[in-house]
TrEMBL record:
This is DUF2065 domain-containing protein. InterPro entries: DUF2065. The chain crosses the membrane at residues 6-22, 42-60. Keywords: Membrane, Transmembrane, Transmembrane helix.
Amino acid sequence: MWQEFAIALCLMLVLEGILPFLNPRRWRSAIMQVLQLSDRQLRLTGLASVLLGTALLYWLH
């Protein structure tokens, strides 16, 4: 199980690094927009991400 977790973490880092590598100006702009969101909006976005990820994992597995 730990090996799969490490693989998932590595894949996450690769995917997270693609946008800043390919287009740092647009990535920086997106981060600045995220900083403008309220705590409630960030929490709802995080919750939606968790639920979508969980549903996709359940569907794929």
